[in-house]
Description:
48% of the residues lie in helices and 12% in strands. It is of the alpha/beta class. The site of adenosine-5'-triphosphate (ATP) has 19 residues, from helix 3, helix 8 and helix 10. Its cofactor is Zn(2+).
Amino acid sequence: KNSNHLFQGDENMVLFSDIGGNEFAKSSLQEIIDYIKSPDDYSSYGIRLPKGVLLYGPPGTGKTLLAKAVANECGANFLYTCGSDFVEIFVGQGPKRIREMFKEARSYKKCIIFIDEIDSLGYERNKQSLCKEADNTLNQLLSEMDGFQESKGITVIGATNQPDILDKALLRPGRFDRKIKINLPEKAERCDILNIHLSKRMTDVTQEGVQEVAEITKNFSGSELENIVNEASFAAYRRARKNIRQGKIRNDDIKECAQRAIQEKESL
Ligand code: ATP
C-alpha cells in the first residue's frame, strides 16, 4: 500500500545473538530497548528516550541487523525504508511518503522506523539548494521528528556510510540524539561472525580453521565474511552432489573461499 515494508515473524527474527562483535553498539542499543520496555524506570530519573539513533560506519557491518534486532528485542513493529525511496522526481511525493510513514508508525503501539542510507535524503541543504524537492523532504522528516513525543513509542534509527555529509539539523538534540559508530570487525569479532554463520549450516570446520580465516581476513566486513561462509557451503554442496562424502563445510573449503575473496578484494 505504500513504499514501507513491514517485517514480522520468524523470517526476520534477528536477535543480538545473531550479530557478531559490535559489543559497544549492542550495549548502547540495549539501553534504548530497556527504556522502550520499561519507560517508567527511566522517566522517573528525568531521562528522555532518544528520538533518533544514528548508526554510522562502513557498508555491510551489521547496521540493518542491529536495527532489526532492536525492534525484535523490544517487541516493536519495524518499518524499513531507504533514504532513496523518498527522493522522487514528482513534486510533493517525498514529503508525502515521510508523512505516511510516520502515520503508519503512530498506528502501532511501539515502532522502530529504520531509514537506511539516510544521507541520500539528509545531505546538507545549502550544498544542494538547487533541489527544492529534496529540501522539502528533509524538512518534513525534521518536522515529523519534532512532532512526536519521546514517550509515544516511536524511535527512528538511521544508518549511513557518510555521516560527514548529513545536514547538521539532523544531528541536533531532539533528532538523532545518539550516534553510534560501527567499525569493521577485529580478529576476535571476525571469529564470532564466522561462527554465527557456520552455526546455521552443516559444518566440520574446527575452531583452528575459524581462527585461520579470521587471521587473514583483515578489513573484511560482516557481509563479506558471511559471503565466504556461503561460498564454502556451495563447495560442500557440490561435493555432496557428487556423492563424495558428506556435504559438510570443511576447513579447506572455507580457507580456499577466504583466499579467493582476498584476491578478489585486492583486484577490485
Ligand atoms: P549497508 O551499510 O550496506 O546497508 P549494513 O551495515 O546495514 O550495510 P547489514 O545489512 O546489517 O549491513 O549486513 C548485511 C549482511 O551481512 C547481514 O545480513 C549478515 O548476513 C552479514 N553481517 C554483517 N554484519 C554482521 C555481524 N556483525 N554479525 C553477523 N552477520 C553480519
